[in-house]
Each structure stands twice: as C-alpha cells, then as structure tokens.
C-alpha cells in the first residue's frame, strides 16, 4: 500500500504535468491571439517558440499518463515528442529547413531567427533527452535494479545542471552558432519543472531504497555546478575578449578609411583648383596631370572633364572609354542626382555604387568648376572600390580579419573569404559618413584568429576535470554508504539469528492449530501446547520431545492407529500433501480434522523429518452443509428472478406495442399473445363497459380456463368496480367475495379483480384466477398482474383520448357533422377511386334561405339551433354510404356515392320538402317555415377535379337562389336535358 511519501510524490508529479501543459497551452494561445507578453515576457528576452510549446504539452501529458499507469497513451505521446524534437534537431545537422515552423504557425515573429528551425538546437536536444527518459519508464522490460534507476536520476540531474548553468551564464557560442543555442527563460523554467516531475516519478513506490543515493547525487550535483560555472566563466572571458578586439578593430578601420578617403578627396580637389586658377587649361597638360593621378593612386578607372553642358569632352585613358566621349551625364538619373547636389553645395560629392561601361563597378567623385562665379564644367573621377580598398587595406592591416563594405545595401568591397557564413555571428558593424554618402562596415575574425582565441583547451579541460572530480566524489560517498550499510546488515543478521528461536516458538504457540514434527525415526522433535493438550485429552499421554510415536499408537484404537501411522509414513517419504480425516471416539463427536503434511529438509536439501498442521474442521463442515442448503435456495431464487426478468421483458414489450394501439380491437391482439407468457399459470377474463349500457360489462377476451366465467356482469357485482381499486380474495380468507365469483371460490386458490381505471374514467375490469399455493409465485404473479392492469388502463385512456381528438379534428363543433377540411380530403380520395373504377357520384350543396334574417330577428342562439336542426334533418335523409359536412356558415355539402343525376335530384327534392316541413320552436313560439336552396353537380360530367366540381355546384346553387330560393338547381341543367332528350 502506498505510504504518505508516495502519495506526496504522486501529487507532485500530477502538479508538474499540469503546470507544464498549462505553460505550453498559454504560449500557443499567446501566438494565436497575438498576446506578446505571454510569448515573450520581455522585449529583450527570447520568445518561446510554437513548436517548443507543443513539445511541453506532449511531455506534460505523457508524464500525467505515466503517473496514472496509462502506459499506451504515454507511449504514443512520447513518440510524438521524439519525432517532433528529432526532426527539429535534424534540421541543424543537415543544415536544411524541413518547414516545421510553417507547418504549425504562420504568425508574426517577435525574434529574428537565423537558423533553419523555429526551435533552438539545445531545446530540441533537451526534448529528445526527456523523451528517451519517458520512453524508459514506458518500457515493460526496463531494468528495475537500483543502479539503472540511479543512472536515470543522474541523467535527469545532469539535465537540470545544464539548464541552471544556462540560466546563470548564457551558453557562449563556442562553435559559432549562437542562435541555435539560445533558450528563452520560460523554456528553461519549463524544463526545470518537467525534470522535477521526472525525478518525482522515478522515486515513487521505492523511497526507502533510494534515500541512500541522495547524498552521492547531491555531491555530484554540487561539483558539476562548480565545474560548469568555471567552464562557462572561462569561455565567457574568451568571448568577451574577442568581442572587444573586434569592436576596437572595427573602430580602427573606420577611422583609417575616413582619413584616407579625405586625403584622396583633397588630392582630387587640387586638380579642380588648378583648372579654376588657370585662365586656359591646355588639354595635353590636363591629360598629363590626370594620367599622373591614375598611376599614383590605384583604383582610378578613369578621370574625365565635362563642359558646362555636362558633356564629357576629355577622358583619360581614352582606351576602353570611347563610349564615354561626348556622353551627356545628365541623362543618367544617378549621375544627375549627384551633379545637382554637387552644384547646389559647390563642393566635391561622392556617388552611390554605379556600373561602369567596362563592366566593373565603383564610385564616382564629382567636383564642380567655377570661374568668376560662372559654371565651367565638372571633373569626374571613376574609382573601382574593390581595387582601391585592396590597396588601402593591405595585409598587415587586415591580417586575421575579414571585411565587407556596403553603400546603401550594395557591396563596395569584399575580402572574399569563404568562411564568412561560419563566423557570421561574430560580425561587428559600423557606419561611416563620407562625402555625402554612408558606408556600412562589417568586420569578422578569420578562422585562424577565432581558433587562436576560442580554440583553447583550458575551458574544456576545466570542465572534464570537474566532471571527473564530481563522479569520483559521488563514487567515494557511495562506497562509504555501502560500507555503512553492510555493517548495519551484519548487526541485523546477528540480531535476527538470536531472535529466530524466540520467534519460532512464538509462532508455534500463537497458532490455534495443532502443530507437531518428528524425525525419520518417528521421534517427536517439536510441537506446540495445543497439540500436547489435545493428545492428553484423547490418549491421556503427557507428550515430551524425543518421545516415539509408538507410545501414542498403543493408546489408539486399531482403526485410528492404522490411519495415523499410514499418514506419517507417507509424510516421511518427502512429499507434501493435505488430507481431511475423521477419527472415531465414543467420548467425542467433533474429531474431524484437516491435516497438512510438509517435509523438513536441512541446509543441504536432505530430508530429515516431517511436520503436520492439524485444524479441527467439525464446525466448518457443519457450516458447509448449511451453505449448500442456502446455495440451493439462492439458486431457486435466481431462477425465479430470471423468470421474473423474462416476464418483465415480455411486459415491457407489451407496453411498447400497446402504446401504438389506436383502438380497443388493436390492443386485444397483443394482449392475447403476451398475457399467456406473462401470467402463464393463471386464467382470467377482460371485461369492457358496454357502450349502450354504462352499468354493464361484457367479456372482451378470456385466457386459460377460468372457473368463474361470465360473459356479462354488472358493475354492482364486483367490489373492485365499486371501490375503484384492486380486490383480492384467497381460498382460506374470510373476506367479501364478488357476486360474479360466488361459490366458485372454493375451487380457486386466489382470485383478483382489478378495475381498468385511469384519470377518473372507468373502462372495464380484468379478472384473474391463480391456482397455485406457493406464496412467492403467487406474489410475483399478483405484482405482474397489477402492472399489466395499470398499463391496459392507461392504454384505454390514451385510445379514448385519441378518439376524442380525432373527432374534434374532423367534425364541426356546432352541428356534429364532418367539417370542411375532412370533407375535402375525403372527396379527393373518392375522386381517385372514381377515376380508377370509372364510377360516378353526385355532390349536393345546401344553403339555408334568408338565414341572416333569422339571426337578426331571433338572435344567434336561435340561428345556431336552426343550423343544428337542419344538419340533423339532412343527416337523417342520407344513406350510410353518404357523407354530409358543414361546408361553411349556413351551407352543407353532401356526397352521394354511386348516385346518378336523377337519383341526386330526387334525393335533393326530398330534403328540400323535409326542411320545408321542419318545425322549430323558440320561446314556445313556432318559427316561420325554413326553406333551403340546393345545387347539384355530377362527376365526371361537371368536372374531374374538386375545384371544377365546387365551381359548377356553386353556379347551380346561385341559379336556385336567383330564382327565389326553396328549389333544386342542377348544374348545366338545360344542356343535360338536351342530352337526355337526344338519347
């Protein structure tokens, strides 16, 4: 059972996993919602990258899964962590971008990333490290010895040391790849917390075994911290020295270039001064002067003079520059900008990087010429910066350094060293303002200088020596612990040997069983007091150590003697066995024993005797008999419960079927099927109240062979109906018996009447007879019977409710006739039937004449009475196959099935006369006679669809109204007469 320390460690592991997952989720949310303060705590600090957050989530979830013993889930998460971190690390070793950052995120970047992946190299390696440790815990075949587990702890502690050193002194970029080694503060914190969780997981369930390893680990931890800090301090000093050296060199070259370029500018201006001080400058003299400049100052490609129209007139040398002759400088946009600036400031200006006609590139110096405030042209000097800088920056000045110079992002000079990319992170940059232009200087150390300063073995040697001392100190502490542990174990063994005999005697005497042992000669070598007292009770022998078994055999009966000797003889053959034996004694009846025989061997494995442990099992055997009887009862109860379960299943299925029944006839069919399975050993009758006589109940269904069987009973004959609840009478009970049972009760074990009653409505009675005496079976059947009766009552109530709803939907509330909606649907069906069978029918539309006058004179109550009386009279005139509805207001529509025109007309005339003779009284006075107007239409003569028939029959009714009412009008009457006359 886990102790408090294990529970604490388990809680710590859960907490670490949750914190790690929360950290990863917070960073992901920060990336997606652009919450910069979460992703990058400070603008000066490095941001945790998206892939790093995903790895923290995978690591935290894997740790939680391991803590809950969900090994498979943890293994899947760990493999995902190893794949993601491994692919990221692979990007650095292959120097190729696999696109992992683009796979997960395409958002703003808060830091510049100069390496292939978004996750730094040491971060990915750290996750690989953690993934392998997690994978170790998920391996079912992992070594569980102390040494292996301590090794894991050392690895984890070493990992924490790396993080601590990275927090104390950021890793110096010893190999020239600084960005791949950077790690954000939140990432370091996450690794530290995750490592604590791994240590907590390692120490769970085996705290006592591992406490002895804490001291060596702490010693190693301290020495490693000191070693790593010393190593980093030395590397940091090298790094600072090189940075300072590069900074000074960059400043020196910047100052040197500023001075030398000013000297060149001054020298170039002297040519302009000579031009402006002389009245007429001869071409030959000017060419000689320009040639002298080109030779003395390497880098000049050409020197030219352009007149006041900016057209190049003279150029030195002419060879290779023929295309520049007579070229208008203002046509070139770049030259025009520099010229305009030079003229505006009236001083020497230097251009941006330009492409020369010969194909090389460089800069131009432009000096404006003014004589007596009059513009007299330009002196232009074209300089190849690569050649000029190579001359200026001689090898003695640039030894051990490489240089690049840019102007507005364009390369002016390159030392052409191929190891620039390798040492790019050591580059120092500075800006230099010269003659109206800004140059950018980039300086970095050569490989020789970098190896000379950073390649010292002193830091690495310090680290290796520190690691060796740490391991040696840890090993020494561990050896001292083992010596102490061995000494303690020797003391424990001595104490245990001294205490063995006492504990053995305590075990023998503390047992309630009869324990004894004898050697191969049948001499007793050990026994407890319980055995000794039992022997004395049965045989009256005072047992002593060394006594031979034959002494006891003399006191036994022959049967018991033979049985006992054969058992000991078998035991001394060296095989363990167990027997249950009963011994006969007239004085005692509880001599039932369970005897366990076991061989006794010495240290060499040789058999030296045997022992037996005897337990009196008399009461146990008695309990077993009672248990067997109880088992039979339980088995019978299980069978009853299974049967009840099946019957309840049938009852549930019956309930489902009854819920879908729309009429009483429909519900009787499933009841007749299931009631025999639910109430199989019973008989009974179901009665429903007669629709014509509410006090009489008629038999609807009968199952089995009920003794008391009447097809009709009265409500007053049954106490259940009178009381409104179940009435039960057993054969041996002196209770009131229902009249419909009577004297038949003597032949019935139990009879039950249950009213079919729901929501205040009485629907009938269900009567059941039980012909079994068993009380449990009878109670089960009564329970099922009650459920069945209640369900039948609810079903009857639902059927009654649906019938009322159906009546309300299809009938007119005032007259009780069908309403228009039902009639339209009915007529549509009849149209399809008539079309299919080629039959005909007639429809008759009846309208009460002067109905508004009746309402106005007598009121709406009398008007409603007139509508009810006319509707009833029309309904009485119809056949059973005819259908009548209240069409609208004071109109009634009749459907006369298979009725010809003549039949319909005759029927309509009879209706008209019947209404005309109808007597309606109101307040004791007889109303004036009521008349109706009737229109007739015939299918298919007057239309083949409902709309056509209604249109024609309305026309017929209109004709009857137009002619004064109280008459019958036939649709298209004249045309039909002509057709009949022609026939």
TrEMBL record:
Signal sequence segment: none
EC numbers, comma separated: 2.7.7.65
Start and end residues of each GGDEF domain: 839-973
InterPro entries per the UniProt record, alphabetical: CHASE_dom (IPR006189), CHASE_sf (IPR042240), Diguanylate_Cyclase (IPR050469), GAF-like_dom_sf (IPR029016), GGDEF_dom (IPR000160), Nucleotide_cyclase (IPR029787), PAS-like_dom_sf (IPR035965), Rev_trsase/Diguanyl_cyclase (IPR043128)
Reaction catalysis annotation: 2 GTP = 3',3'-c-di-GMP + 2 diphosphate
Coiled coil: 624-661
Short name of one Pfam family: GGDEF
Keyword Transferase appears in the UniProt entry: yes
Subcellular location: Membrane
TM region(s), chain numbering: 12-33, 45-64, 76-94, 119-138, 150-177, 183-201, 213-234, 457-480
Biological process (GO), any one: signal transduction
Keywords: Coiled coil, Membrane, Nucleotidyltransferase, Transferase, Transmembrane, Transmembrane helix
Gene Ontology cellular component terms for the protein in this record: plasma membrane
One term of GO molecular function: diguanylate cyclase activity
Chief localisation class: membrane
Cofactor: Mg(2+)
CHASE domain boundaries: 307-392
PROSITE patterns: CHASE, GGDEF
Name of the protein this chain belongs to: diguanylate cyclase
Species the sequence originates in: Legionella fallonii LLAP-10
């Amino acid at each position: 059972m886990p102790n408090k320390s294990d529970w604490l460690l388990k809680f710590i592991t859960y907490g670490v996993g949750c914190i790690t997952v929360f950290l990863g989720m917070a960073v992901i949310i920060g990336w997606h919602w652009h919450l910069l303060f979460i992703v990058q705590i400070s603008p000066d600090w490095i941001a945790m990258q998206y892939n790093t957050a995903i790895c923290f989530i995978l690591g935290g979830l894997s740790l939680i899964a391991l803590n809950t013993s969900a090994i498979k889930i943890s293994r899947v998460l760990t493999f995902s962590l190893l794949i993601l971190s491994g692919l990221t690390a692979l990007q650095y070793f292959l120097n190729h971008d696999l696109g992992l950052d683009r796979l997960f995120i395409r958002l703003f970047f808060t830091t510049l990333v100069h390496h292939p992946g978004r996750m730094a190299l040491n971060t990915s390696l750290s996750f690989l490290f953690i993934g392998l440790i997690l994978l170790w815990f998920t391996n079912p075949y992992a070594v569980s010895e102390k040494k292996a587990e301590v090794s894991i702890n050392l690895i984890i502690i070493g990992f924490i040391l790396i993080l601590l050193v990275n927090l104390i002194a950021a890793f110096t970029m010893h190999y020239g790849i600084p960005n791949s080694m950077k790690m954000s503060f939140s990432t370091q914190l996450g690794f530290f917390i995750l490592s604590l969780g791994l240590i907590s997981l390692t120490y769970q369930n085996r705290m006592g075994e591992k406490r002895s390893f804490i001291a060596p680990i702490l010693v190693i931890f301290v020495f490693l911290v000191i070693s790593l800090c010393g190593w980093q301090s030395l590397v940091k000093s090298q790094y600072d020295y090189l940075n300072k050296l590069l900074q000074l060199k960059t400043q020196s070259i910047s100052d040197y270039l500023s001075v030398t370029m000013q000297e060149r500018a001054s020298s170039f201006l002297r040519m302009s001064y000579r031009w402006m001080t002389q009245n007429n400058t001869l071409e030959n003299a000017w060419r000689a002067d320009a040639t002298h400049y080109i030779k003395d100052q390497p880098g000049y490609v050409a020197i030219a003079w352009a007149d006041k129209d900016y057209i190049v007139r003279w150029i030195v040398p002419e060879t290779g520059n023929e295309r520049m002759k007579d070229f208008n400088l203002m046509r070139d946009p770049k030259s025009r900008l520099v010229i305009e600036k030079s003229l505006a400031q009236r001083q020497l200006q230097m251009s941006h990087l330009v492409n020369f006609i010969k194909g090389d590139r460089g800069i131009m110096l432009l000096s404006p010429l003014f004589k007596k405030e009059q513009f007299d042209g330009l002196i232009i000097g074209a300089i190849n910066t690569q050649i000029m800088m190579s001359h200026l920056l001689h090898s003695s000045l640039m030894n051990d350094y490489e240089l690049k110079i840019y102007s507005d992002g364009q390369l002016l000079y390159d030392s052409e060293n191929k190891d620039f990319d390798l040492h790019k992170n050591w580059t120092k940059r500075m800006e230099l303002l010269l003659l109206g232009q800004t140059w950018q200087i980039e300086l970095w150390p050569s490989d020789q200088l970098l190896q000379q300063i950073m390649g010292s073995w002193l830091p690495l040697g310090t680290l290796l020596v520190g690691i060796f001392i740490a391991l040696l100190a840890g090993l020494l502490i561990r050896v001292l612990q083992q010596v102490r542990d061995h000494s303690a174990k020797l003391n424990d063994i001595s104490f245990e040997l001294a205490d063995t005999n006492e504990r053995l005697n305590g075990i023998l005497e503390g047992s309630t069983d009869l324990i004894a042992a004898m050697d191969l000669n049948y001499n007793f070598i050990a026994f407890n007091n319980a055995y000794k007292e039992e022997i004395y009770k049965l045989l009256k022998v005072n047992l002593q150590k060394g006594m031979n078994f034959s002494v006891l055999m003399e006191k036994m009966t022959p049967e018991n003697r033979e049985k006992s000797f054969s058992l000991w003889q078998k035991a001394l053959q060296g095989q363990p066995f167990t027997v249950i034996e009963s011994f006969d004694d007239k004085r005692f009846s509880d001599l039932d024993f369970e005897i366990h025989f076991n061989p006794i061997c010495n240290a060499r494995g040789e058999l030296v005797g045997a022992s037996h442990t005897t337990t009196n099992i008399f009461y146990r055997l008695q309990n077993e008999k009672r248990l067997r009887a109880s088992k039979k009862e339980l088995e019978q109860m299980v069978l009853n419960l299974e049967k009840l379960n099946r019957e309840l299943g049938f009852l549930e299925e019956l309930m489902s079927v009854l819920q879908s029944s729309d009429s009483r006839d429909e519900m009787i069919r499933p009841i007749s099927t299931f009631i025999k399975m639910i109430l199989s050993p019973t008989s009974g009758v179901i009665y429903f109240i007669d629709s014509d006589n509410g006090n009489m109940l008629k038999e609807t269904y009968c199952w089995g062979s009920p003794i008391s069987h009447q097809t009709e009973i009265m409500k007053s004959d049954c106490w259940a109906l009178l009381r409104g609840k179940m009435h039960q009478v057993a054969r041996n009970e002196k209770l009131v018996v229902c009249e419909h049972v009577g004297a038949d009760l003597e032949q019935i074990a139990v009879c039950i009447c249950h009213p079919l009653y729901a929501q205040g409505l009485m629907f009938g009675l269900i009567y059941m007879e039980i012909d079994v005496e068993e009380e449990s079976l009878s109670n089960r059947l009564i329970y099922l019977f009650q459920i069945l009766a209640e369900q039948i009552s609810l079903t009857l109530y639902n059927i009654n409710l649906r019938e009322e709803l159906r009546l309300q939907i299809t009938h007119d509330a005032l007259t009780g006739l069908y309403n228009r909606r039902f009639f339209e649907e009915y007529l549509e069906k009849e149209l399809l039937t008539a079309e299919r069978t080629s039959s005909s029918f007639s429809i008759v539309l009846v309208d009460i004449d002067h109905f508004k006058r009746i309402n106005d004179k007598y009121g709406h109550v009398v008007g409603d009475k007139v509508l009810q009386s006319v509707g009833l009279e029309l309904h009485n005139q119809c056949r059973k196959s005819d259908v009548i509805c209240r069409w609208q207001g004071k109109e009634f529509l009749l459907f006369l099935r298979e009725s010809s025109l003549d039949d319909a007309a005759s029927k309509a005339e009879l209706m008209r006369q019947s209404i005309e003779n109808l007597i309606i009284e109101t307040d004791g006075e007889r109303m004036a006679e009521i008349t109706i107007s009737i229109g007739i239409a015939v299918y298919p003569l007057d239309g083949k669809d409902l709309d056509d028939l209604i249109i024609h029959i309305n026309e017929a009714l209109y004709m009857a109204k137009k002619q004064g009412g109280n008459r019958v009008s036939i649709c298209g009457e004249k045309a039909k007469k002509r057709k009949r006359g022609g026939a």
